[in-house]
Amino acid sequence: MKNMQFENKNEFRKYCKNRLKKTNNKIKRDFLVNKKILKYIDEIKAKNILLYIPLKQEVNINKVIQVLKKDKKYNIFVPFMEGVSFKMVKFRLPLNIKKFNIKEPKNSFAKGKKIDLAIVPVLGVDGAFRRIGFGKGMYDRFFQSLPYKPKIAFVELSDCITASCVGESHDIQADIYITPYKTIKRGKHDN
User: Fold this and answer.
1) How far is CA 131 from CA 13, 54, 84, 92, in A?
2) Which residues have CB under 8 Å from 22's CB, separation 6+?
């Protein structure tokens, strides 16, 4: 699949959405990705972590959230939508359902810590290791607003990667791409 060529981001996004619809064994895939995320967090010794509240078509990372919440050394943040972007808020219950069926905790006006790692859901990854997301650009705007660059891990239920460079310069790049059966670090490949 990596050798398939695509003319543009929309064509590749459509291809990835169709692949995602055909993905089976979601529970097993979620389990495998969660395990890899926890291993990566330990490997890079991240303490302040931006996660996400999963939508149905994304990797369910609730197990990662549960594990990290039990250990007081971790600070867990999640997106809180604001206009065309989001800010980080501390993860806490209850969660409210907002636009695009996104769940999030209540707003917080506390100043967020500098994050070490962001776990970001993707539809696909292009040849420049850029995120092909759902087309809203919220993650791109958020990361552009940060005065520093944390480690970024893309996660997905089924690998959808192309050698074509269909992303744009504002699309975020990852340090690592984690799927159930593949882990790819930028510049390195590990099946």
Assistant:
1) 10, 17, 17, 27
2) none
Nearest to 145 by CA among 126, 172, 106, 109: 172
Task: Identify the burial level of 37 via C-beta atoms within 10 angstroms of its C-beta, where 0-12 means exposed, 13-18 middle and 19 or more buried.
Answer: buried
pLDDT (0 to 100) of residue 152 = 96
What pLDDT sits at residue 92? 72
In order along the chain (191 residues), what is the average pLDDT of each group of 10 residues?
71 91 92 97 95 90 94 87 72 72 69 86 92 83 89 94 88 94 77 40
Query: What CATH topology corresponds to 9-185?
Result: Rossmann fold (3.40.50)
**Interatomic CA distance for residues 59 and 156, integer angstroms:** 6
| Distance from C-alpha of 168 to C-alpha of 85, rounded to nearest angstrom | 18
